[in-house]
């Protein structure tokens, strides 16, 4: 999970990293009540990079200029995303600009401090210019000073940069981050330093340990009304495509293999979720059954999903309970069964629609023999169905066929 620049700078300010006076702008008229002095810079708050090159960063000398610039930026999509807020910040003239970062290196399983005396780095040749220090033991100011010295800094500037690196590492540990980056770190003529832009990447496995991060994650999911989990350091948990076949699996390999087969069979995958791990927004431990139940409701709530393809391979905890969750997904006793009301982990209720996506279930493994037989005997209403298939290729073909069948019925 990544944060927007204004959120990152709030963290920087709280921990003691120097940042410029700034103000969050939610509407152009907010600039009439600006509390910082002109001239200012207005920055689009989006997750896409290269905003400066497409007009997402503009300078303003007066309120009239600032309002006009803000109106333009609010209506400027960057990589398809419109900003919901802007950041107004005092203009800063830097004589030098540095690059600093603290990153988790999964190859050595240790944090690494990075520093370069150039902010605009050509990453293809970064190895020649970028200095690094591996934090091999418990962190101490020695590591920060060593990085500053390797960057060729001396005197007051070395002390200033070292102090910033120490605070970055403190933030890195306190918030369970994978990355803390300042790019650029501005340096004035008097060797004073200022974080002009920042970026952090939160370890998604750690979100549940931090109530403030869990709240941010919930707001992000609600705001974008999707499950946009991104691949990060190999912990692939899910992605939203925009097709009609939702995919659920119990491992990265099973999900990705299923996704590829659906595409090769002429189908279009939709939301794909790996249920081996908890959702980033879960604030308490969950069982596999909890995650399966929640995932089914997520997919059922997406009107574009017409078929849910479940591919569980190997072994599962609580097999009988997992089968019950799948069986209870559809109203298989139509005359005496009421629409089921479910409660999600955050306490909110959601009512299942009377028309649900069809289920294609592939269970591979000897322990699933009884489960397959049980699910195959379930009689469902005419609007829904559970198809149980042991062979994955056949399950994929059936899921694609059901989507086409549903599309034809609409016409």
Automatic annotation (TrEMBL):
SUPFAM superfamilies: Glutathione synthetase ATP-binding domain-like, Succinyl-CoA synthetase domains. Keywords: ATP-binding, Ligase, Nucleotide-binding. Signal peptide: none annotated. One of its GO terms (biological process) is succinyl-CoA metabolic process. The keyword Heme does not apply. It comes from the Bacteria. Gene3D superfamilies: ATP-grasp fold, A domain (3.30.1490.20), ATP-grasp fold, B domain (3.30.470.20), Succinyl-CoA synthetase domains (3.40.50.261). GO terms for molecular function: ATP binding; metal ion binding; succinate-CoA ligase (ADP-forming) activity. Pfam families: ATP-grasp_2 (PF08442). Residues 9-222 form the ATP-grasp domain. The keyword Ribosomal protein does not apply. One of its GO terms (cellular component) is cytosol. This is Succinate-CoA ligase (ADP-forming). It comes from Chlorogloeopsis fritschii PCC 6912.
């Amino acid at each position: 999970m990544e944060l927007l620049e204004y959120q990152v700078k709030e963290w920087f300010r709280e921990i003691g990293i120097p940042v410029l006076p700034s103000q969050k702008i939610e509407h152009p008229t907010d600039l009439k009540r600006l509390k910082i002095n002109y001239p200012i810079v207005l920055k689009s708050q989006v997750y896409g990079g290269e905003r400066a090159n497409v007009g997402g960063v503009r300078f303003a000398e007066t309120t009239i200029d600032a309002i006009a610039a803000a109106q333009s930026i609010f209506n400027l999509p960057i990589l398809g995303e419109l900003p919901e807020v802007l950041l107004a910040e005092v203009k800063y003239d830097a004589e030098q600009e540095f690059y600093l970062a603290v990153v988790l290196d999964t190859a050595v399983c240790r944090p690494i401090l990075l520093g370069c005396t150039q902010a605009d780095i050509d990453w293809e040749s970064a190895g020649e210019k970028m200095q690094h220090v591996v934090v091999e033991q418990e962190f101490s100011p020695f590591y920060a000073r060593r990085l500053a010295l390797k960057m060729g800094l001396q005197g007051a500037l070395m002390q200033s940069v070292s102090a910033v690196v120490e605070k970055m590492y403190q933030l890195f540990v306190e918030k369970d981050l994978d990355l803390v980056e300042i790019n650029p770190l501005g340096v004035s003529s008097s060797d004073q330093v200022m974080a002009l832009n920042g970026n952090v990447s939160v370890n998604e496995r750690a979100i549940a340990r931090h109530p403030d991060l869990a709240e941010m994650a919930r707001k992000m999911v609600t705001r974008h009304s999707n499950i946009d989990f991104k691949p990060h350091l190999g912990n692939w948990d899910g992605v939203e495509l925009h097709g009609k076949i939702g995919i659920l699996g119990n491992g990265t390999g099973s999900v990705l293999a299923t996704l590829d087969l659906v595409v090769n069979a002429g189908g279009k995958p939709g939301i794909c979720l790996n249920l081996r791990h908890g959702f980033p927004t879960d604030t308490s431990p969950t069982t596999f059954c909890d995650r399966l139940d929640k995932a089914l409701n997520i997919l059922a709530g997406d009107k574009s999903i017409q078929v849910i393809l479940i591919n569980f391979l190997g072994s599962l905890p609580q097999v009988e309970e997992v089968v019950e969750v799948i069986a209870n997904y559809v109203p298989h006793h139509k005359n005496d069964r009421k629409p089921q009301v479910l409660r999600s982990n955050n306490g909110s209720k959601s009512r299942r629609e009377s028309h649900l996506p069809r289920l294609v279930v592939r269970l591979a493994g000897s322990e699933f023999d009884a489960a397959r037989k049980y699910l195959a005997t379930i009689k469902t209403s005419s609007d829904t169905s559970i198809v149980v298939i042991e062979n994955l290729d056949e399950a994929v073909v059936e899921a694609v066929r059901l989507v086409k069948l549903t599309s034809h019925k609409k016409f």
